[in-house]
């Protein structure tokens, strides 16, 4: 009898009885340790592309093992080599071929160059407005079949002046500084002058030092500054080229003045004045005299 209390105190699980025995034993038992775990969810799948090329092989290996986005080393290297090749474009000026706008097959070439290099967006209707109405003023430059530059212009009446306008001029970067832009603009200006234009105008960004220097060498002057002219908020210079008017020899000017004075009726002898004109002149004199008499009366 004296052992039972001590047994109950030392081992509570054996002392419990009745309907709550199973519940109590479960609560007092230690938490079982699992022998296996469920497999982790698979990592999300990403395309193996990275916004910037990875040039280091070690960094590329780490990123590839971690599932990060990256460019493969082959693509990054080939892209760098292609850019380097474009920067080192070497050619002779005689290799550049120039052609005026020849039809619809030239339009995509012009659009591609302008959209790639210029800051202002243009719709296809703008391009067609220029090249359809003034195809003789648009020129393209080719190097071994590749279009590397273009100029697009127009001409027409402007306030009592027949004026030419240079709308677009593009030469891709690897071919700049070789005189291609100068040749393109010169060809367009020559056609404008032969067509009777008295001046040529255009707009250029104030930050475009290369274009300003080019047009300055061709004789353009800065006529006006247009504030926030472009969509990117940059100011523009309006440049103007004035064609010199042909000067007449002084003897020709004197002959023209003498001829004009001789044709004037007041300087002609009376016998050379037609009879009808003489009657008209006399009637005018009589009417003037009558008016003077009425005023005196």
Automatic annotation (TrEMBL):
One of its GO terms (cellular component) is NatC complex. Residues 21-49, 260-297 are annotated as: Disordered. Residues 31-46 have a biased composition (Pro residues). It holds the Pfam family Acetyltransf_1. Residues 282-297 have a biased composition (Polar residues). The keyword Chaperone does not apply. CDD domains: NAT_SF (cd04301). This is N-acetyltransferase domain-containing protein. Keywords: Acyltransferase, Transferase. InterPro entries: Acyl_CoA_acyltransferase (IPR016181), GNAT_dom (IPR000182), NAA30-like (IPR044542). Belongs to the acetyltransferase family. MAK3 subfamily. One of its GO terms (molecular function) is protein-N-terminal amino-acid acetyltransferase activity. Residues 94-244 form the N-acetyltransferase domain.
């Amino acid at each position: 009898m004296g052992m039972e209390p001590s047994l109950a105190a030392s081992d509570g699980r054996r002392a419990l009885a009745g309907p709550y025995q199973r519940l109590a034993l479960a609560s007092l038992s230690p938490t079982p340790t699992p022998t296996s775990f469920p497999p982790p969810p698979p990592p999300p799948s990403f395309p193996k592309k990275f916004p910037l090329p990875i040039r280091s092989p070690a960094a590329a290996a780490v990123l590839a093992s971690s599932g990060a986005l990256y460019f493969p080393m082959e693509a990054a290297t080939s892209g760098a080599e292609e850019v380097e090749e474009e920067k080192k474009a070497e050619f002779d000026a005689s290799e550049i071929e120039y052609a005026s706008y020849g039809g619809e097959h030239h339009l995509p070439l012009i659009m591609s160059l302008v959209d790639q290099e210029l800051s202002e967006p243009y719709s296809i209707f703008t391009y067609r407005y220029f090249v359809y109405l003034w195809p003789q003023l648009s020129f393209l430059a080719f190097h071994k079949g590749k279009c590397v530059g273009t100029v697009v212009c127009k001409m027409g009446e402007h306030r009592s002046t027949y004026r030419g306008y240079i709308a677009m001029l593009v030469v891709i970067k690897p071919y700049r500084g070789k005189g291609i832009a100068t040749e393109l603009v010169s060809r367009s200006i020559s056609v404008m002058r032969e067509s009777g234009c008295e001046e040529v105008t255009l707009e250029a960004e104030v930050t475009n030092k290369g274009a300003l220097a080019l047009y300055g060498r061709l004789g353009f002057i800065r006529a006006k500054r247009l504030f926030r002219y472009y969509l990117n908020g940059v100011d523009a210079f309006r440049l103007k080229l004035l064609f010199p008017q042909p000067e007449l020899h002084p003897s020709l000017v004197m002959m023209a003045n003498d001829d004009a004075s001789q044709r004037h009726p007041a300087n002609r002898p009376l016998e050379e004045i037609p009879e009808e004109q003489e009657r008209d002149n006399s009637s005018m004199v009589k009417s003037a005299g009558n008016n003077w008499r009425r005023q005196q009366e």
